[in-house]
Design goal:
Largest sheet: 5 strands, mixed
Number of domains: 4
Shape: globular
Structural class: alpha/beta
Helix content: 25-40%
Number of helices: 17
């Protein structure tokens, strides 16, 4: 096929043509299933561009372009920096990205025109009527239609592409003129944010993606206390310079020259206090304290009096302060001006946490504590996992990791089991590095020691017979799995290609030499 670029048409998507979720807050209209191209006074020009919508015309778009477009606008779905929309969120973005990933590399559709006082194009096909109108953020989306001549077929091909509009305008006015000023002020202020979901969904990875710099990280555990989190007075060594000619030596006989050792007690700050110092010392930067496994400690007890600070004003500062002499004195020792021993969380400090409510042995958080946080659920997303096509040895064959996880989760959701999603398997329950370039035996060890034991002990421990095939003991289950038997009560799409076996084992077939 020989294509010659003839012309291009560039238009910005306006609000009238998009679906409700991406309409701006306050918009009442339901939206039209068509894209505005221009005034009907220019109909001849547009008809000529579209070759009068000849039946020989071919209209298409590429999946790769839509992927790149969604990736370039993801920040707007998360933060809504430029505009406020009616129903979008990161979850909405992920669902649309999943829809795009299911498309063919090139999608072909029909196209028609509609005119009143304005000139529109529309299509009744789902990719245009539903998908495009659900992702082309109004005023931020630039649509470019490239017109090609196919010399061999003697017809025109119209390729639709979508891009983030770098010069954001709305009705020829800067979007800044239409911003909710209070909303804008809240975009770069501190928040209390909890990301939760099933094990292996990538909670920590997402935290790092949203809060990439200027952060401290701590992991809660059952023995973690207020004094670990805030700080406490602890013994620290000091040394008295001895003027006499007394020679001190260590227990192994090595001379000790620091002086006579004594013990002093000093306030040693914890991660919360250190984060306060960071934020108060540099008010022009946004800092983040990350708490992993929030509910594995007795969280209300760990926060103690700081619980009161979690109520925040619109500018991100604590609504109420607390008196804490130890923290106040330490902050003063760093040169900060703290009055009346009153402590509050500043507007430039995020407190972000991850948690998985399905873990055994976790502490419950009361409603008063939880209502002071913004909760975000991270769903299981197999399609975007980088190792979804890694081969898992199973039943004398191989199963792709993405297929393996999906079918296991479907079984856990079945009528007999009804296991809540927070106990399902996320794609990163087993990491890419655990599977990449590993032999079959190494992969079997990983599956047994991480996945199967989790399923046996935690997830289906009271319903083994509904999940496993002929379960007796865990050791028997592992033995049968290693011997290539079917051990799970579901069918997988198996790959029994001998070439895959050699590849996975790292064995060279000498017959090919």
């Amino acid at each position: 096929m020989s294509l010659q670029l003839i012309d291009t048409l560039e238009k910005h998507i306006v609000e009238s043509g998009v679906k409700k979720p991406i309409k701006l807050v306050g918009t009442k209209s339901s939206g039209e299933a068509k894209f505005h191209i221009g005034s009907s006074s220019n109909s001849d020009e547009f008809d000529n561009f579209f070759n009068n919508f000849s039946e020989l015309n071919l209209y298409k778009l590429k999946k790769e372009n839509l992927k790149e477009f969604l990736q370039s606008t993801k920040f707007e779905y998360i933060y809504q920096i430029f505009q406020q929309y009616q129903e979008i969120s990161l979850e909405y973005w992920e669902s649309k990205y999943s829809d795009v990933m299911k498309l063919d590399d090139e999608e072909i559709f029909t196209l028609r025109r509609f005119t009143d006082s304005r000139y529109y194009i529309f299509s009744n096909e789902p990719i245009f009527k539903n998908l495009l109108r659900s992702i082309t953020l109004p005023y931020l989306t630039k649509m470019i239609i490239s017109k090609y001549l196919d010399d061999e077929a003697d017809n025109y091909i119209y390729e639709f592409s979508f891009y983030l509009n770098e010069n954001v305008k709305r009705e020829e006015k800067s979007l800044l003129d239409n911003y909710d000023k209070e909303y804008l002020n809240r975009l770069n202020v501190g928040k209390n944010h909890i990301i939760y979901g099933a094990p292996g969904t990538g909670k920590s990875y997402k935290v790092d993606a949203i809060y990439p710099s200027l952060k401290r990280r701590v992991t809660f555990h059952p023995e973690y206390t207020y004094y670990d989190f805030v700080g406490s007075y602890r013994p620290v060594p000091v040394y008295k310079q001895n003027s006499s000619h007394v020679n001190l030596i260590e227990s192994d006989g090595i001379p000790f020259n620091k002086g006579e050792p004594l013990v002093d007690y000093r306030f040693v700050p914890g991660p919360f206090t250190l984060s306060l110092v960071d934020a108060l010392s540099d008010e022009n930067q946004l800092y983040t304290l990350i708490i992993e496994e929030l509910n594995r400690a007795n969280t209300p007890a760990v926060f103690g009096d700081l619980f009161q600070l979690l109520d925040r004003n619109n500018d991100g500062t604590s609504t109420y302060s607390v008196t804490n002499i130890d923290i106040a004195n330490y902050l003063r020792s760093t040169g900060l001006d703290i009055k009346n021993n009153e402590i509050e969380i500043p507007s430039n400090l995020n407190i972000v946490a991850t948690m998985n409510s399905s873990d055994q042995g976790v502490f419950l958080m009361d409603s008063a504590f939880k209502r002071r946080w913004n909760f975000e659920y991270l769903p299981i997303n197999i399609d975007d996992a980088e190792h979804k096509n890694e081969m898992i040895p199973y039943n004398n064959g191989f199963v792709k990791w993405g297929e393996f996880v999906t079918k296991i989760n479907n079984l856990l959701s079945s009528e007999h089991l009804k296991i809540n999603e927070d106990k399902h398997i996320g794609p990163y329950f087993i990491k890419p590095s655990d599977l990449k370039d590993k032999t079959n035996e190494e992969k079997k060890d990983i599956i047994s020691s991480k996945l199967l034991i989790y399923l046996w002990d935690d997830v289906v421990r009271l319903k083994h017979t509904y999940f496993f095939v002929n379960p007796t003991t865990f050791s028997n289950l592992i033995s049968r799995y290693n011997n290539g038997e079917r051990i799970i009560q579901t069918d997988f799409e198996m790959i029994r290609d001998s070439e895959q076996k050699y590849k996975t084992e790292g064995i060279v077939d000498n017959n090919d030499e």
